[in-house]
Design brief:
Layout: E1 2-3, E2 6-7, E3 36-42, E4 53-58, E5 61-66, E6 78-82, E7 87-95, E8 107-113, E9 116-117, E10 121-124, E11 133-140, E12 146-152, E13 161-168, E14 173-176, E15 190-195, E16 234-238, H1 245-249, E17 252-253, E18 277-283, E19 294-296, E20 301-302, H2 307-313, E21 322-330, E22 338-341, E23 344-347, E24 354-360, E25 371-374, E26 385-390, E27 393-396, H3 404-413
Parallel strand pairs: 17-18, 19-23
Antiparallel strand pairs: 1-2, 1-3, 3-6, 4-5, 7-11, 7-13, 8-9, 8-10, 8-12, 12-15, 13-14, 15-16, 18-21, 20-24, 21-24, 22-23, 25-26, 26-27
């Protein structure tokens, strides 16, 4: 636990785990750290666990915390939990009337305001029924006037959402229109909708580690419509939807052997709080073939591990070349070994002063279509190598046996007027 007067040592809550659907009251002995603002919940086993809510009591005081995600080692051992907050928000959720528009999967929402971003909150445990409009109340921290939302899901059960209206007590409503975009995890697990005319060009605040794609998108400028409508402009973004201009301008170009250690781009030598920085980087082609074919750790890597190779291992970028996000966190005592992925072996390591993780941001592997044309730099192009996606894995198409008519059909599917095959 972390409070206004310091941080406690780690305390064992249970050695046997918790039963599904139960409420447990536990008495623990720890240092008095004042008003508790954050707790770190660690799962020391490999069985997946997700809590619903955690309350910490000390005398007559209590603090409530939101549970955001599943934890299970070695992929994700620790969840950082922040205070629930007491600001009431009224949310109206529409689901389209078309066939199969509804979903049975849990749906989450994150509110983006002038003063930051709320934790991810559950909108519905059971999803939404097609053609319905539901009114929901949630409590979260006060982030000021709402300029954007992030809706997300964690399991595969598509949802065709309609208009979402958010009202903060005592404030005007904010309306968000996804304009036909749908949630369809794992292809699209997160959808960000920004009101671009609320207050100029508003940037999404940095991610707080809730597992969503927030923090990587930025709203774009939107001019008034031709008919003179001066209503709210709405920008819809989603995971892999493109980098903003500022993110591209601040992008770091890594070498295959670049590491976080002693690199000024990644802040001070010792990091005191999680998610210290989230940066955008790009690697050259062929890093998986250069030098040592190994990385250190899985999921979370020590600062001594190659950033580019770690991104390839994490599948945050294609094996040949790509752009991805790098998050910097405090170091760990040890890092786990793992199986071979993309020709790279994950080795155990530890301890390290700093850690980092990688995430997808503008990755061509996240293209909507199951076919693509890629140039020599590994970028989407109008001519180059034809690739197809089968069961989530991209592979090249051999030219032998491919007829001209098939090539034309493929090019038209990719929105080109025509196409031809070039050998050699």
């Amino acid at each position: 636990m972390q409070g206004s007067e310091g941080k406690t040592d780690e305390v064992l809550l249970t050695s046997e785990g918790f039963e599904e659907g139960t409420t447990s009251i536990l008495n623990v002995v720890a240092a008095n750290v004042g008003d508790v603002s954050k707790i770190f919940l660690r799962n020391g086993g490999t069985d997946t666990y997700q809590c619903a809510k955690v309350r910490v009591e000390l005398g007559t005081k209590f603090w409530d915390f939101d549970c955001q995600t599943e934890i299970a080692c070695p992929k994700r051992c620790v969840e950082v939990m922040t205070l629930t907050g007491s600001q009431k928000y009224e949310i109206t959720v529409q689901t389209l009337s078309k066939e199969n528009a509804g979903t049975d999967s849990p749906i989450y929402i994150t509110l983006i305001g002038e003063e930051g971003k709320t934790a991810r909150k559950i909108l519905s445990e059971d999803g939404f029924t097609e053609g319905t409009t539901e009114e929901i109340e949630i409590n979260a921290k006060d982030v000021g006037p709402i300029h954007g939302i992030i809706v997300s899901q964690t399991v595969h059960d598509p949802w065709a959402l309609g208009i979402i209206v958010v009202k903060r007590a005592g404030q005007e409503e904010s309306t968000f229109d996804p304009k036909g975009e749908e949630l369809n995890c794992p292809l699209r697990c997160s959808l960000t909708i920004m009101n671009t005319k609320k207050k100029g060009n508003y940037e999404v605040p940095p991610d707080t580690g809730d597992g969503t794609a927030g923090g990587m998108e930025e709203s774009s400028d939107s001019s008034d419509s031709e008919d003179g409508d001066t209503g709210e402009g709405v920008s819809v973004q989603f995971l892999g939807g493109g980098l903003s201009t500022s993110e591209k301008n601040n992008m770091l170009n890594f070498d295959c052997d670049t590491i976080v250690q002693d690199n000024a781009d990644f802040g001070p030598p010792v990091i005191g709080t999680p998610n210290y920085a989230l940066l955008i980087g790009k690697c050259p082609t062929g890093c998986d073939k250069l030098g040592d074919s190994s990385v250190l750790g899985i999921g979370i890597h020590p600062e001594e591990s190659s950033i580019c190779k770690s991104a390839i291992y994490d599948q945050s970028m294609p094996w040949h070349v790509g752009v991805f996000g790098v998050g910097i966190q405090p170091g760990l005592e040890k890092y786990s070994k793992g199986r071979i992925i993309s020709g790279l072996q994950a080795k155990a390591f530890g301890p390290s002063a700093k850690s980092f993780y990688t995430i997808k941001v503008d990755n061509i592997d996240m293209a909507r279509e199951n076919i693509r044309v890629v140039d020599q730099e590994g970028l989407i192009a109008s001519q180059g190598r034809l690739e197809v996606r089968s069961q989530g894995v991209w592979g090249s198409v051999c030219a032998v046996g491919v007829e001209t008519s098939a090539v034309r059909t493929i090019c038209r599917q990719l929105k080109y007027l025509d196409g031809a095959m070039k050998n050699g």
